[in-house]
Target: Olfactory receptor 10D3
Amino acid sequence: MQNYTSVMEFTLLGIPNTEGLEKMLFVLFLPFYLFTLLGNLLIFLTILLSSNLHTPMYFFLGNLSVFDIFFPSVSSPKMMLYLMGQSRTISYQGCACQLFFYHFLGGTECFLYTVMAYDCFVAICYPLRYTIIMNPRVCTGLMLGTWLGGVLHGRILTFLVFKLPYCGPNEVDNFFCDIPVVLPLACADTSLAQTVSFTNVDVVTLTCFFLILTSYGHIVLSILKISTSEGQCRAFSTCSAHLISIFLFYGPVMLIYLRPASSPGLDSVIQVLNNIVTPSLNPLIYTLRNKDVKLALRKVFI
Model:
C-alpha cells in the first residue's frame, strides 16, 4: 500500500447518544464497579479463610469471584476516566490488550460456568461418589484447563484482528475495543478475520452452553426422581444460584455475537450490562441464596 501510515492510537467514542450525560453516567457506574470489586473480593477472602468452604463447589466459586474482579476491570477504569473528562484516546497496544483480556477472561468464565455445571451434575446425580470424582487433582486440572482454554481463545482472536493493517480512521464506536467495532477500521479485507473470529466465539459459546444444558438436563431428571419435596428443594437450591449467573452471563454474549447484524447503540447497552452490572450481581446471588456463605461471612466479620 502506498502512503501507508500505521495507526498508533485509537479514540473511544464511548456509549452512543450519551453526549452531555458523562458525569451522570460516572455517578451511576462508579458504585456498581466499586461494589463489584469489594463484593467479589469479600467472597474470595471468605472462601479462602473458611475451612468449611474448602470444597470443590466453593473452589470454583472463589475462582469465579476472581474473574468477576478482573473482567470489568478490562474496560471500566478507562471508561471512568473519560467520563470524568480525561482523554478518550487509547494506544494501539492498549486497544489490543483490551481485546485480548476481554476475550481471555470471557472465554475462561465461559469454560468455568461449564465446569461448575459439571460439578453440580456430579453432586446431585452421583452424591456418594462426589468426593472421589471431584478430588483435588481433578479440580485443579479443570481449573487449569479453563485458564489455558481462555488464553488460547483470546490469543487467536487478538491475532486475527490485529494482524490486519490499520491506517485510519481510528475512531472506535464503543467505550472499549472489541471485535465488532475494531475490525471495520482495518485497511484491508476483513471478511476472513470476521468469519473466523465470530465462528470461534460462536463455537466456544454454543459448545459450552450445550454442555451446560446437558448437565442440567440430567440434574432435572435426577431431582424429579427424589421422593420428597424437601429433598427436591434442597437439590434445586444447590444449583439455582449457578443457573441465574449462567443466564445473566450468556444472555448478553449471545445477543452481541450471535446476531446476524450488529447495532452499535444496542451493543453498547448490552456491553454495559455485561461488563458492569452483571459482575456486581454475582456476590448478591451467591450470598443471598447460600446459607453456608452467609454463615461464613458472619464468622469472618465477627
Remarks:
- The chain has a mean pLDDT of 85.
